[in-house]
Amino acid sequence: MKVPAPVMTDIDDVQRIALTVFLADDSHLDPRDVIPVFHRWIQTHAVDGLLIDVADYTHLPTGPSVLLVAHEGQYSLDRTDGRLGLQYTRTRPLAGTLGERLRVLGRTLAHAAGLLETDSTLRGAVRFAGNELTCVANDRLRAPNTAGTLEAWRPTLDTFFRTVSADAGWSLTREPDPGAPFGVRARTTGSTPLRTITARLTAAPDI
Amino acid sequence: MTWKHVLGERVPDDVGREIDTYENQMALKRQGKIDDKVFAETRLRRGAYGQRYDNGQRNDGTGVKPLPFPSNGQTKGPDTVWDAPGMQRIKIPFGGLTTDQMGTLAELAEEYSDRVVHITTRQDVQLHYVHIDDTPDLMRRLAAVGITTREACGNTVRNVTACPIAGVCRDEAFDVTPYAQASMRFLLGHPDTQDFGRKFKVAFSGCRQHACGLVNMHDFGAIGVTRTADGVTERGFEVYVGGGLGAVPHEAKRFEPFMAEEEILPTLQAMSRVFARLGEKKNRARARVKFLVAQLGLDEFRRLVREERAALPKDDRWAGYLDDLPAYGERPLKTGQALAEDTGSASFQAWARTNVYRQRQPGYVVATVSLPLGDLSSHQLRRLADVARRFVGDTVRATVEQNIVLRWVRESDLPALHRELDAIGLARPGAGSIADITACPGTDTCKLGIASSRGLAAELERRLADQMETLDHSVRGLRIKVSGCFNSCGQHHISDLGFYGVSRHVGGHVVPHFQVVLGGKWVDNGGAYGLAIGAVPSKNIPDVVRRITDRYVEAREGAESFYAFTTRVGKRALRSLIEDLMAVPAHDLDASYYRDWGDPREFGIGDMGIGECAGEVVSLTEFDLAGAESQIFEAQLFLEAGDFERADALAYGAMLQAARGLIKTQDIDISNDPEQVVTQFRLRFYDTEIFFDRFAGGKFAQYLFRRHTRGTPVVGIDTARQLIEEAQLFVEATHACQARLAAQPVMMAPPVHAAAADGRPS
Fold it and tell me: Which residues in chain A have their CB less than 8 angstroms from residue B2's CB?
């Protein structure tokens, strides 16, 4: 089906948003090692949300590899273009403006990523790079993958990325595949450690 | 702005109204104005299924914990929480997909599901972790590309399946696709198909010998055949009825050797009416066509259907589509062209050996995209749609082996196609091989799953894929199929090596097991059903595969098929080959046996305190259960030897022994007298509902009661075989009941007035 014509709705209506941070080049992680970690997170309520179950998709070369399903969203060790990252996708509505929600999602993601970085069963092999993030809107109705959507989102994204790393010059690239959901890849030459990102997002005003 | 508004006229009016009605019913349900059961059937008929943990609880490995969904007590069916994630089944008639439909499915997986698209064993698509509030828009978006989810579940005519290479097959009588399509359109929403007690499955095949259509396991299966009269070749169908897998499998029976093509739709309508009128409605366990055929006898069933057919008022749709048949057919995107031999890389050659089928049309081939566990990511599906657009157009089909085929590939394009598929991780070789394993969702997402069928299949695929190049040629083409429970959604009955999930209670823990099923036939449209030869801990199943396939390679006579080999060698010898693998080491010696594949949690209910006395009683019960299983196995051997009466007696004896074992948890002095056993079992475990399965209720107990009431019956092969299947299920239910009892902190006998029944104190 063809993507509907761009619809300029209030960007604050977009709810299904995914943020991803990527593993640093020197990280080594077998996705299957994350399965018991996610199960343990359910037992200990280690991350935000009503945690339901773990899905093993390690047989897939792209997309979610290991998924921790929550009622409100999904945590996934994700594989995109051969790279592993941690993604948090919000699936149920969250109050606040788009900017406020991005900060909440960022904090949720950074907290989970921090837990993986410090998980002793993963033998310290995990480190997330702080110089690249993606933000995807899984909502073709309210956020078609067009230049217009990027234009509408850019001020909010700029603010969000300044919060993540104030002194970095982020460059934003829109997802080039017109069939893919609207997404932005944000890169910066500098690198901010995950714990700094977490701290900055935590310190940012809550909704 | 809503999808309803944006899609507008792209959603056909009637379909749009149906979805609006469904959305209204959702609103009414939330207002408490629709009964739980009624709404459950309503959403099921739209393909919105339940999913594991939708009852609001889950064992997290330390015990069963509540999942406090924010639904405020709202439910979407009995014991089903509104906010719990669900599965959306999407009907894909005969598996046929256009590239636009593929793109839409990818979008829906991204926006409403978990970015994974799953192909089922009935050529459907399933999306998991879908919130029910999202389903109306999901359905509208599907409707805009010509897909309906209507009657994807529920007591309806399910997806009409057909051979995925119909029209290009070298062995078919003719292309059955238009007949499958016409049947689907005619039956969908037809008034005569709305009042069934259970589902109704239809399949079409273009030949007798291959497996692509699996006619033998369908309520109504049609094999395309031709005959010549007065120099004119006529198309028709060899029609089979009353087949089905499930808990109690039945092989289909031949209804008619040649049914004229114009009679297919009216016969389906007549059969639907007979099934709706006479089929079981109250007892879901016996509400399929197979039970009606068995109950009435084939001749009487046939007579009733023909009588009904004769009385039907003429409907122009019965034959209307036949006028369009001469024009029917796919148009290849490119002109056919052969490929020079020895072209391409080694990986291309390996892929081409297993994944490419030469069409009967010169210069064209079918390329199979082999999907691990039937899964592909939304990203892969979107890219695959792009590849299909460039190489074949809208000639894509899903298969019952959970793969996707691209038809009408120009043969000379194969190396380029392989490169493109490889770039998106879809050039896995080994399609249709022992490493291309079929598995139902099992405990991953299915509410009925007992053991992890996908976990086991993934493990076997990993091991076998690594060994493919060194495996003996005779083994490479075998089929492995895995179900998470006895319901056989993984089609374990019709594979060379079949497995279905069960559990066993060992030393206060529950251990995941799989029953090993041998004797099934994939070819000949699923031509023979296998039987279980014994339960093996999940952990040991890879060794079972290795030992049995090694023995096949060693003892194979000439070009003997695996089916012929298992028949010749016999189940006793094959069971003895794996008998030592049935043992479970104590938990403190090897705890890995107590976890399932791909899941680090302790399996099931494990570590609750059991009284010392109860422990003893449990061991006596286990002894009886082991004896019952032995009797079932012996019954199979007599069945194979043609001694149906002894097979029947042993199966009956197995149920009695299992029941007696359970009674011993309350009355250690229970006698061997069948009357006493059945009476006590009924009083203590049936009337109290202690034996009841959460989903099946008391149906397994009914198997014992029914056989007990029959006395000394006249037994044929079908009745003996059915009793063996029933006895196996009764024993499985006894295992489950025993596990539930053992999980109780203190096992106390419920107050049963048994003394009045047998004169002894209870």
Answer: 141
Q: What CATH class does B610-762 carry? A: mainly alpha
pLDDT category at B262 given cuts 50, 70, 90 is very high
Alpha carbon distances (Å) from B694 to B689, B697, B700: 10, 6, 12
Residue ranges, comma separated, of all CATH 3.30.70.3340 domains in chain B are: 346-423
Q: Is residue A5 part of a domain?
A: no
Which range, of B229-233, B283-287, B385-389, B701-705, averages the lowest pLDDT? Answer: B283-287
Interface of B with A in 357-416 (CB under 8 A): 372-373, 375-380, 382, 385-386
pLDDT digits (tens, 9 = 90+) for B453-490: 999 999 999 999 989 889 999 999 999 999 999 989 99
Domain topology for B433-607: Sulfite Reductase Hemoprotein; domain 1 (3.30.413)
d(CA A188, CA A133): 9
What gap in Å lies between CA A139 and CA A131, rounded to an integer?
Answer: 26
User: Among the ranges A78-92, A187-201, B593-607, which has the highest mean pLDDT value?
Assistant: A78-92
Judge whether B114 is closer than 8 Å to chain A, CB to CB: yes
Most B CBs within 10 A among A57, A81, A119, hence the mutation to make, goes to A57
Q: Is residue A3 part of a domain?
A: no
Rounded CA gap, B373 and B456, in Å?
A: 10
Does the interface ipTM go beyond 0.90? yes
Closest Cα in chain B, distance from residue A5 (Å): 9
User: Under DSSP, is residue B498 helix (H, G, I), strand (E, B) or coil?
Assistant: strand
B751 touches chain A (CB under 8 A): no
CATH topology of domain B346-423: Alpha-Beta Plaits (3.30.70)
pLDDT in tens, B607-621: 222 222 232 333 567
User: Which of A59, A72, A88 has the highest number of chain B CBs within 10 A, making it the mutation to test binding with B?
Assistant: A59
**Mean pLDDT in residue range A78-94:** 93
User: Residues B206-218: pLDDT tens digits?
Assistant: 999 999 889 999 9
**Is B107 in contact with A59 (Cβ distance < 8 A)?**
no
On chain B, the residues whose CB falls within 8 A of the CB of A180 are 379, 382
Please tell me the predicted confidence (pLDDT) of residue A6: 43
Q: Give, in words, the CATH class of B168-327.
A: alpha beta
Q: What is the pLDDT, as a whole number, of residue B333?
A: 96
**Integer Cα distance of B20 and A77 in angstroms:** 37
Domain for residue A7, yes or no? no
Cβ separation of A7 and B1 shorter than 8 Å?
yes
Residue B480 has φ and ψ, to the nearest 5°, of -115, 130
3-state secondary structure at position B49: strand
CB contact under 8 A, B372 and A43: no
pLDDT greater than 50 at residue B682: yes
Query: What residues in B contact A71, CB-CB < 8 Å?
Result: 67, 69-70, 83, 85
The answer to the question of residue A75 being in a domain is: yes
Domain total of chain A: 1
* pTM over cut 0.95: no
Specify the DSSP element, H or E, that contains B258: strand B253-260
Q: What is the span of the domain harbouring residue A111?
A: 12-203
Residue of B nearest to A4 (CA): B6
B371 touches B403 (CB < 8 A): yes
Instruction: Provide CATH 3.30.413.10 ranges for chain B.
Output: 168-327, 433-607
Query: What CATH number does the domain located at B3-143 have?
Result: 3.30.70
Contact flag A1-B69 (C-beta cutoff 8 Å): no
